[in-house]
Amino acid sequence: MATEMTGRPVAPREGRVIAFPSGTGTANIERCARELGRRHGAEAIEFWRAECRRIADQLLAAGMPESDVGERVLQFQQDVQIELVLSHQNGPLPKSQNR
Fold first, then answer.
1. Which residue segment(s) compose the domain that 61 sits in?
2. CA of 12: how far to CAs of 9, 15, 16, 80, in Å?
3. Tens-of-pLDDT digits for all 99 residues of the chain?
4. Distance of alpha carbon 55 from alpha carbon 66, whole angstroms
5. What number of H helices and E strands is found in the chain?
6. 28: closest CA among 60, 59, 62?
7. Is 17 part of a structural domain of the chain?
8. Per residue in 10-21, is it b (16+ CB within 10 Å) or e — as a string?
9. 8 A C-beta contact, residue 19 and residue 63
10. Which 8-state DSSP code applies to residue 92?
């Protein structure tokens, strides 16, 4: 009946919830790229490890399976690396207004 009224298929009664914490969003990717662009050596490595661990912890706390967490963290790392490359091609990223 819902299909007839709205033209949309009826959602299944059971579904899978996918956790999407804000830590992996565009603003966080840009923030991490900005921070990595200004940090060097051991300081950059420490920051990067802490950020990836924080995201993994958020995803695990939200109930995401470990195998999926690893994939999401790798995707986040790739997104930040892309942002770093783009920022070097386009000039420095603007400083955050939230400081």
1. 46-89
2. 9, 7, 10, 35
3. 455 555 666 556 666 665 555 556 889 999 999 999 999 999 999 999 999 999 999 999 999 999 899 999 999 999 999 999 998 887 655 555 444
4. 12
5. 4, 0
6. 59
7. no
8. eeeeeeeeeeeb
9. yes
10. P
**Structure tokens given for 1:** 């009946």
Q: For the whole prediction, is pTM greater than 0.85?
A: no
Whether 33 is covered by a domain: the verdict is no
- Kindly state whether residue 10 falls inside one of the protein's structural domains: no
And the tokens for 45?
A: 């490595």
Task: Evaluate whether residue 71 is within a structural domain.
Answer: yes
Domain count for the chain: 1
Query: Which residue has tokens 């060097």?
Result: 40
